[in-house]
Specification:
The chain is of the alpha+beta class. It contains eight helices and 15 strands. It has helices at about 1-25, 60-65, 125, 205-230, 230-280, 295-310, 325-345, 375-385; strands spanning about 30-50, 65, 70-80, 85-95, 100, 105, 110-120, 130-145, 150-160, 165-180, 190-205, 285, 315-320, 355-360, 385-390. Strands 1-3-4-7-8-9-10-11 form an eight-stranded antiparallel beta barrel. Strands 12-15-13-14 form a four-stranded mixed β-sheet. A two-stranded antiparallel sheet has the order 5-6. Helix 4 (about 205-230) packs antiparallel against helix 5 (about 230-280).
Length: about 400
Amino acid sequence: MKTANFFGLLFLLVLPSAISAQEELQITAKDSIVQSSWIVGVGFNAVDDSGNVFDGLFNVGKEWNIVPFPSRVSIGRYFKSGLGLEAIGTYNEYKEGNIIDAQVINENISYFGIDGRITYDINKIIGETGWFDPYVGIGAGYTDANKKGRGTYNAVVGFRTWLSDRWGLDFNSTGKWAMSQSDGATNHIQHAAGVVYQFGIEKGLSKRGEEKLELLAAIEKEKERQRDSINEVNRLKEEALLAERLKKQQEADALAAAEKAKEDALNKKKAEIKSRIESLGNVYFGLNSSFVNTKSKKVLDSLVQVLEEIPTLKLKITSHTDSRGTSKYNDWLSQRRVDRTKAYLLSKGIADDKLITEAYGENMLLNECDDNTYCPEDKHAVNRRSEFVILEFQ
């Protein structure tokens, strides 16, 4: 009789915990994702037809052709399978002096392109996300460039990042291979970036939502089995195990949220300290001088306050010269400047192990004032400086 009363009491204590945990494990809007939709887009495109694509991939100023207004429109239909069909129209203009079809042009020439492609959502392989959609695709099109029409075989790689269910950004690069090169037409790369909008949306559960749904179904099935169970003791044990499992999941989620909040707070603090140090400005020196003047001392005194307020902060001091004088002399002069900058901070009580120094001479000019360029004094003065870089903060 005493044993039966004990298990009855245990049942009453455990059951509310299990029911409460199940109520918190619900399917929410965050567990749904867009599975199919129409997408329209407007943006910019850049054409690289330099014949030097991989050596100068990011040589935007010299090899990319871009117009300063929206020059790309697209519309596409995307299906649950991950496949998408898209039509794209683009306009551009090759700049005088750039390369088309392996020849340097002596006038601006218009570029027109109409393309169709089939894409596949890589999330179908790596796992669904609600905000990041990488994709690859192939297609074909017609391009009028260098006053020559050519059909092209196309291959694309890109990604969309979603700011909401409707709006997002699209970035991609397309390789275009001329179907026939008998008339001198060559291959080129077209980059694109723009804003996209979804409509005709059909949603479904994400992988996490499906796992929740399966877990909820498993919980319900388990409860049904327990209700039908003849053995009361076994049923109570299963309820307790289920409640513990859900409790651990909630604790793990809470711990992860706390760790993220801690990391966000640390990153915010780091950004604040960096902004504070940058707002102080640099220490500047006179021509051929390593003397720390009154104005620069005020900057260093403010920096001392920051270092005293934040005991874990460590800095690197870098000093520089303008381009006048020999490189050997400027190396010596920048070393004197960095030594005197550090010496001033040490004189104010800052520990030596908080400061690391490096002298760069004239190797890191902030403007065009090198040995081959005439500049007025105010431009040379910008380069005669000591700067401060955060090395460590806890």
